[in-house]
Amino acid sequence: MGVRVALRLTLSVSILLVALSLGACGDESSPASDAAPVQAPEVGLEHIHGLGVDSGALYIATHTGLWMAPEGQREPKRVGESQQDVMGFSIAAEDRFIGSGHPGPDQNLPPSLGLIESRDGGRTWTSVSLLGETDFHVLESAGPRVYGYDGARGLLVSSDGGRAWESRTPPAAMFSLAIDPRDPDRVVAATEAGLFASADAGRRWRPLSNELAGLLAWQDSGGLVLVDGTGASLVSDDAGRTWRPAGNIGGQPAAFIAHEQDLYAALGDGSVKRSSDAGRSWSLRAAATP
Questions:
Q1: pLDDT for 81-100, tens place per residue?
Q2: 4 Cβ partners below 8 Å, 6+ apart?
């Protein structure tokens, strides 16, 4: 099989698997949303949507709330009591988590939470903006700069931590977005039409590749890493223009982030893998006890 054919197959497989992963979370307008919410077990993970690292602890945003595995421990524990569906999730600062999603069974709130924040390590959450208006499936932040993508509203960008927003037109339906750690205006997006880059906070886009798709993370060292729908990781040293193969996380990715020089990838089975060598090798960081 030629390289170009293989890359196009990678794009097709990645789009299909990512779409299936997002679709598994449901839609507040579907009949299924009227059913009784799923109650989470004391220890267990269901539909991982996002990851974050704060002071060495790994935070795992799921369909049934936020979980945390302290540094040196693999078994995650529930953070707080909320079982809200945390769809988008990002650690904006040491004392500020942001998220989006749907309310838990004990919350009398609209189906879409808009942007929410926690100032106590995820134990409690308050509304910041867009309550009842949006549900960000893609949510990334770099200090006060926040990017949020909602399939209905498109791409929204904030420069004040998510209180006020400006609309942007994404190049296509978006699966993932990575922010250059050295320049918050510079981003790369993975979409159903391939990879695109913007140097002006999403106002204008230029195509990078129509043969790759997956989840993106940008390391502090400058390496941009992609995990495709088959679990293969690829690395770019030139902001997405060229790519080289690295390793494999061992399955379909559910969430993917970079923290300093480490990479973290969640799999569909609820486990989280970590790489400290730019995606070449992966080891288990967290997993729920069966």
A1: 889 999 999 999 888 999 99
A2: 211
